[in-house]
Amino acid sequence: MSSSEAVATVVPAELIALVQDFVRWGQRHLDDAVRASRQHVERPGDWHRLVLYALTDALAYNFLLVGTLAGYLQEQGLDADLLRRHLQCPDPDRYVNQEALDLLAGLMGRPVNEGQREPTWHFVGRQIAQCGVDQSEEQSQPRPE
User: Fold this and answer.
1) Which end of the chain is less congested by CB atoms within 10 angstroms, N or C?
2) How far is CA 22 from CA 15, 18, 44, 70, 120, in A?
3) SS3 of 116, please?
4) What single string gives the DSSP state of each residue in 24-68?
C-alpha cells in the first residue's frame, strides 16, 4: 500500500466541523477588516490598527486550521512530498505546531495525560467535536456512522 493510500478513505466528521467553525470565525475577522477599512478612513491610525488586528486574527485561524489538517495527514501517513505539494510549502512543520497538535488531539477525543492540565486548544477541539458538523451543511456531506 502506498503512503497516499494509507490516508483514511473517509474524512472524519470532526475535521469537517473544524473547517466549518474556523472558516466561519476567520470570515468574521475578514468582515471586521472590511468594516474597519470603510469606517476609519478619516483616522489613519485607527484604520491601520483595526484593519491589521482583524487580518492577523483571520490569519491566526487559517494558520491553526492548516496546521491541524496537516498534522492529521502526517498521522495518517500521507507521503511527505505530497503533503508539501498540498501545502505549497517546503516545510509542513511550519504549520504543525503544538497548538495544532493539541487541537487535533481534542478533536479526535484523545485524553490529556493524567495530572496534566488540559491545553486550551485541546478543549476547543473537544468542543468542536461534540457540537459536530453544522446541520445545514450535513445534508450535503453525509457523516460516517
Assistant:
1) C
2) 10, 6, 29, 15, 15
3) coil
4) HHHHHHHHHHHHHHHH-TT-HHHHHHHHHHHHHHHHHHHHHHHHH
- Calpha distance 70→89 (Å, rounded): 11
Check if the beta carbon of residue 118 is closer than 8 Å to that of residue 97: no
Q: Which residue in 104, 131, 137 sits closest to 119, CA to CA?
A: 104
Which three three-digit cell numbers place residue 43? 483616522
Query: pTM here?
Result: 0.83
pLDDT single digits (tens) 94-142: 999 999 999 999 999 999 999 999 999 999 999 999 998 655 454 444 4
- Asked whether 106 and 135 are in contact (CB, 8 A), the reply is no
Predicted confidence (pLDDT) per residue in 60-96, tens digit: 999 999 999 999 999 999 999 999 999 999 998 899 9
Angle of helix 44-75 versus helix 13-39 axis, rounded to 10: 170
Q: Do 55 and 33 meet the contact criterion of CB atoms below 8 Å apart?
A: yes
Quote the cell numbers at residue 133. 458538523
